[in-house]
């Protein structure tokens, strides 16, 4: 294994896994496997990039540090020479953590000096300029993320946010320096002996390529998935990996869509889906009173197989806030995670679901934890940041794990089609 990734949620892990798998256009990437939690056994020797998906974004900072260090140790044991700490391209971290504390711990463990901090993902409109994170043309704290129910983002200045969280000093490399090219940037990393977290500006994929090539040899890098797009190139150029693309299977059979995100993009995708498919909205009041069970979800899914059934708990910000005031955000999250996890387990292991699409990072974490799949083969990209994932149980299972703000408007139908074999020949019956 060459590159190891520690991802703070499951959809983010999928996002960077497909980035490493495809690499730069025309060159290909690394043979990549996504692990659901820290594995208990050594990796397959054929794996070149290992991505460990944790559910550590919104847990207590000390727990996030402990889990991240455990993941780091396993990756180092597999031979990794470069570690990436992957977090969301909208940062999703309060003043109490968890990004800063985890970076502090990993920096110390790896004896890193210059640690890149770059959450940019230009394909999805996330850019960093003068140390500030933008979502399209809006500063992060004016993009809607300031209303996030778990990690409200009140400041766009990544330097200021990190300074509140981390004990490691924070630096900055402006976009004007990035555009000078990879070699001057690499020299800047190499010549500075001060240990620090360096926020690096990036406005385009080209900027991320420059940064990625300059990062060759750095023991620790952090950011969104975009920071990884040129990293396979460094190992291919050094003759340590061959590159190229890998074939993926296609799985047909019963399908289900489970959605727990309340982002604006996801709500629009649900609206588009219900125009031609069966959709069930879960009433939070009924869920919290235990009047809706996993069996109810399973029955709806099975009764509407001909109509691409979708079950969701999303709501508009006002209704979500009202429910949180009554029951508490943590209680609602725990109950929904349990409900979706139980439903997924019944759907896959009892009802025979073969294609499963999940919307929302927290919901994806609950679902894959409940399924206890261990590891997933990373396939082709369904939409930017969302790969097809495959697990071979007694029967094959295909998954798509979508972060709340990702995906085209017709994502859910498109994902099912892709998992089912559109444009693929090696279908598994």
Describe the structure.
This protein has helices at residues 10-22, 61-77, 99-110, 158-165, 175-178, 182-191, 205-214, 231-237, 264-273, 284-288, 294-303, 317-327, 329-349, 361-371, 411-419, and strands spanning 3-7, 32-36, 49-53, 82-86, 114-118, 126-129, 132-135, 138-139, 170-173, 196-200, 220-223, 250-251, 255-259, 279-281, 310-312, 355-359, 375-383, 386-392, 396-402, 427-428. By secondary structure, it is an alpha/beta fold. Strand 6 (126-129) and strand 7 (132-135) form a beta hairpin. Helix content is 37%, strand content 21%. Residues 423-429 have low confidence and may be disordered.
How does the SSE layout of this entry go?
Elements: E1 3-7, H1 10-22, E2 32-36, E3 49-53, H2 61-77, E4 82-86, H3 99-110, E5 114-118, E6 126-129, E7 132-135, E8 138-139, H4 158-165, E9 170-173, H5 175-178, H6 182-191, E10 196-200, H7 205-214, E11 220-223, H8 231-237, E12 250-251, E13 255-259, H9 264-273, E14 279-281, H10 284-288, H11 294-303, E15 310-312, H12 317-327, H13 329-349, E16 355-359, H14 361-371, E17 375-383, E18 386-392, E19 396-402, H15 411-419, E20 427-428
Parallel strand pairs: 1-3, 1-4, 2-3, 4-11, 5-10, 5-11, 9-10, 12-20, 13-15, 13-16, 14-15, 16-19
Antiparallel strand pairs: 2-17, 6-7, 7-8, 17-18, 18-19
Helix pairs in contact: 2-3, 6-7, 11-13, 12-13, 13-14
């Amino acid at each position: 294994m060459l590159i190891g990734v520690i991802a703070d949620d499951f959809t983010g892990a999928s996002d960077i896994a497909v980035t490493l798998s495809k690499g730069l256009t025309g060159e290909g990437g690394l043979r990549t496997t996504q692990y659901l939690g820290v594995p208990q056994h050594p990796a397959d020797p054929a794996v070149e990039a290992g991505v460990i998906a944790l559910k550590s974004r919104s847990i207590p900072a000390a727990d996030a540090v402990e889990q991240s260090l455990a993941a780091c140790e396993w990756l180092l044991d597999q031979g990794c020479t470069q570690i990436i700490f992957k977090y969301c391209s909208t940062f999703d971290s309060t003043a109490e953590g968890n990004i800063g504390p985890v970076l502090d711990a990993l920096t110390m463990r790896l004896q890193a000096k210059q640690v890149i901090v770059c959450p940019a993902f230009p394909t999805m409109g996330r850019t960093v300029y003068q140390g500030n994170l933008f979502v399209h043309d809006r500063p992060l704290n004016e993009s809607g993320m300031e209303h996030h129910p778990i990690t409200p983002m009140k400041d766009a200045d990544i330097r200021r946010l990190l300074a509140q969280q981390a004990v490691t000093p924070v630096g900055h490399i402006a976009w004007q320096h990035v555009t000078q090219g990879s070699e001057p940037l690499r020299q800047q990393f190499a010549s500075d002996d001060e240990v620090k977290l360096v926020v690096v500006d990036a406005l385009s994929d080209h900027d991320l390529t420059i940064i990625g090539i300059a990062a060759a040899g750095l023991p620790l890098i952090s950011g969104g998935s975009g920071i990884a797009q040129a990293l396979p190139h460094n190992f291919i150029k050094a003759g340590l990996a061959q590159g190229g693309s890998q074939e993926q299977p296609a799985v047909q059979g019963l399908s289900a869509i489970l959605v727990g995100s309340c982002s604006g993009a996801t709500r629009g995708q649900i609206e588009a889906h219900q125009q031609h498919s069966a959709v069930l909205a879960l009433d939070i009041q009924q869920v919290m009173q235990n009047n809706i069970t996993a069996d109810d979800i399973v029955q709806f899914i099975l009764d509407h197989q001909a109509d691409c059934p979708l079950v969701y708990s999303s709501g508009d910000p006002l209704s979500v806030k009202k429910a949180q005031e009554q029951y508490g955000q943590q209680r609602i999250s725990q109950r929904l995670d349990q409900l979706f996890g139980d439903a997924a387990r019944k759907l896959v292991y009892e009802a025979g679901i073969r294609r499963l699409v999940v919307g929302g990072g927290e919901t994806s974490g609950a679902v894959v934890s409940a399924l206890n799949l261990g590891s997933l083969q990373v396939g082709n990209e369904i939409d930017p940041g969302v790969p097809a994932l495959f697990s071979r149980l007694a029967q094959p299972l295909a998954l798509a794990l979508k972060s709340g703000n990702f995906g085209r408007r017709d994502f859910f139908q498109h994902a099912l089609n892709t998992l089912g074999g559109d444009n693929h020949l090696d279908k598994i019956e």
